[in-house]
Design a protein that fits this description.
The chain is an all-alpha fold and 227 residues long. The protein has one domain. The chain is 66% helix and 2% strand. A two-stranded antiparallel ribbon has the order 1-2.
Amino acid sequence: MMVSFFDQFASPLYLGIPLIAIAITLPWVLYPTPSSRWINNRLITVQGWLINRFTNQLMLPLNMGGHKWALLLVSLMIFLITINMLGLLPYTFTPTTQLSLNMGFAVPLWLATVIIGMRNQPTVALGHLLPEGTPIPLIPVLIIIETISLFIRPLALGVRLTANLTAGHLLIQLIATAVFVLLPMMPTVAILTATVLFLLTLLEVAVAMIQSLCIRTLLKFMPQENV
């Protein structure tokens, strides 16, 4: 029976129970919990140092008011990186290839930034709907366009992130299938194709890490005063 290439993106089931919850919960089990001792082991020390450096780089473009988001953003980005990297292993499932999951991350954070901006700086937040120096006849049209652009951002972000991972996984599976098919007939071509597969895998690893920077994309569209 011919197996569809898109079957890898279907949520796996066991006794009729979707296993996506386990795939989402698993990354948190892989990180060691810091102890209450004054001196930790090397693994926890390196983990803490990397998280501190990661947090400093993430919060660097934001003012002091935005630093209260550090725990949420850093936890979410580490979570996404771990899920994406685990999804590159053979016989695994990548939850972030599901549009529903990406939208579940994008919509609440986008909505929080909009609500906080309207509460703290309503004039500045509404001012972004109308660029300065706009001719009077174009004001109604530009307000409608900017409003639609504001509401479509989380959808565009979720679709872009889903498409990036889905396209990468499909290309890896297609090229890997081509390698196995060509190996008995044309070994030289198969070796060259395997080299392309290796390079594509490295690219997919980079994409898996870059996808977690979607949170910074959300913050980039938000005025610093509204954080």
